[in-house]
Amino acid sequence: MPAGGVLARRDETRVIAVCSQKGGVGKTTIAAHLGVRAAMAGQGPAVLVDTDPQGSLSEWWRSRAEEELPLSAIKMGDLARELPTLRNCGAAVAIIDTPPALAESIRAVVSVADLVLIPARPSPHDLRAIGGTIDLVQRARKPFLFVVNGAANRAHITAECVAALSEHGRVAPVILYQRTEWAASMINGRTVLETNRGGRSAREAADLWDYTYAQLAMREAA
Ligand SMILES: Nc1ncnc2c1ncn2[C@@H]1O[C@H](COP(=O)(O)OP(=O)(O)O)[C@@H](O)[C@H]1O
Ligand SMILES: [Mg+2]
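A: This is the predicted complex of the input protein with adenosine-5'-diphosphate.
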């Protein structure tokens, strides 16, 4: 069992929302990898929820055809109403992928979340675009974590990005680096945790889950 405690009541579903108004920052990639890792680590059952009308997570899930990680059929508009069902579905965690841009939709998901992950790519353009998402999550008074994704090796800008984000909130100490295997692994329903178990990307995915889980457990214990 990785360090970081355990969730006290395993029969209640904690909701992790992966949100950013910016597209292409890694929301879907992160949601899928966290779900798979939660199940692998024995810290599930986990359930995925896809609230993006584009349905990339659902598509990935359908090509996956594995039973250990279900995808909930709850639609975005029914989320608030269906939340009690989601919370009592027997899953320890629900991981919600969200669409970019649509502030109203993201707000609805954030309002039901126990923890919000905000992925950010280390580029000036992405950092400028992140303000709206931060605002939205802070207004909802939800705990959140930034996740730096798509970092380049030895790039000064990664450290600058971490520093800039830290001024607004907690940054996950796990950085996900730019590697084609993140994308390639998902083409036929897998993740890097399965296509290259011993690789660096798999380590990052596992560490990100461990940290996220520890944050949930810590907040619950407090
Ligand atoms: N760390 C990474 N390294 C390489 N490619 C990545 C990484 N993270 C995401 N990608 C790729 O970038 C694109 C956007 O990621 P995605 O998860 O779909 O973002 P979002 O859901 O925020 O739009 C996808 O093609 C994905 O495979
Ligand atoms: Mg997406």
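The chain has a mean pLDDT of 91. Residues 200-221 form the longest helix (22 residues).
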